[in-house]
Amino acid sequence: MQLLRKLGLLCSPSRLWFGSSVPIGVPHRHCTLPAAKATLDSSGSAAQSFWNKRNKGRLIKSPSRAQRAPQEVSLDIQEYWRAELDKVDSPSAKPLLPHIDVTQPLGITYGQKPILHSFFQELKQQHPTMMLLVRIGEFYEAMGIDAVMCVQHAKLNPMPVSGGRSPRAGCPIMNLRRTLRDLTSAGFSVVICEEAASPYAYGAKTAKKERYLAGVVTPASPNYLHGLMDDEGAAQVDLEPTPPLLAIVQTKNGYTVVEVHLVDRRCKVFYNQTEDSVLGRIQAGGLVPPLYMHSTTEAVAAAGKAEGQAHAVWREHMATNFRNQVGSVTTFASRLHGGSGSERIIEGLLDQIKRDTGMPEDTSFQVAVDKGLQGLPFATMSQLGLGTLTGVPSLLDALAAPTTATQARRWLRRQLLSPPPLGVKLAIREACRLLIGSQEALPTMLLLHDLGVAVDHAGVLASCREVDQTIAATVAEACGASADPDHKEGIQAVVASVQKGSSCPFPAAEAGCLEEMFSSVEKFHGKVLNGLVADELDQVADARSQVAHASVAAFKAIYEEVPARSRSQQPKLIFDSTNQAVWIKPGKAVGTAAAQRMKFINPLNRHGKKEAQVYSTVTLEGALDQYRSSCLAASRAVRAVLQELAVKCEVHTQELMGASNLSVIMTALLAHVQKAHFQRCWTLPQYAGEPLAPAQAPALGPTSTPAPASTTGGPASAHAPAAQQGTQAAPAHAPSPAQGDRLRLQVHEMWPYWMDPKRDSTVRNSLDTNSIILLTGPNMAGKSTVLRSTAAVALCAMCGLLVPAKSAQVPEFQRVELRTFVGDNPLENMSAFAVEMTEMRQVLQSATHQSLVLIDELGKGTEAGAGASLSASMLEELDKQRCLGIFATHLHHLLDLPLEAPSMEHMQMEVQPCSSSDPALPGERLQPTWRMVPGKSTTSLAMEVASDCGIPVSTVARARSFMQMILNNASAPVLSADQAPPKTLAAASSPAQQHVGWQVLKAEFVDHGQQPPPSVALSSCVYLLELQDGWMYCGQTDDLLGRLDWHRGHLKVHGNLQAAYVRLPDECRGQSTARSVESDAIRSLRLRGAPLLSTHDERSPLRAKSV
Question: From what superkingdom does this record's organism come (predicted)?
Answer without folding.
Answer: Eukaryota
